Amino acid sequence: MIVNLINKQRAFFIDRMFFKVKLQNLIEYKYFISIAKKNFPLPLDISNLEVSVIFVSDKKIKELNRTYRNKDYVTDVLSFAYIEKFQSSLYTNNFPIQLGDIVISATQAMRQSYDQGVDFKDEILRLIIHGLLHLLGYDHEKSPKESVQMKRIEKKLYIKIN
Question: Beta-strand (E) ranges in 21-139?
């Protein structure tokens, strides 16, 4: 999997190398591959999937949340899937297949890390995992059962790479 880390905010330093290493460990983890294939039938080789993680300001994420979800407030993470359904025709060439974008408010992540007493990098990592699961078809807003399942998967993935 190709992971692009894009920093469009200036409030906080984002250690791109740290996150690239952590995400590389995540995508090589067999459990991650199995849960990815459960909701999103992937080819055996997921190396040609591409995801962008974009760090933005509170102002920008509020604007995106209002525009795409009709919710006029700051949120921590938004996911924008480019592929909603598996289509075998997508895998006919060797070009990267864009799975989607994960947009994170660095300021909101900092607030949450402070409130929860965790490291900023750990909170960012948790938000990336959360966003990635959304791109793979998991949705905690569908039902309480799905919410519990998604939380369990998030926690297991987080523990594995941290």
Answer: 49-56, 77-81, 97-105
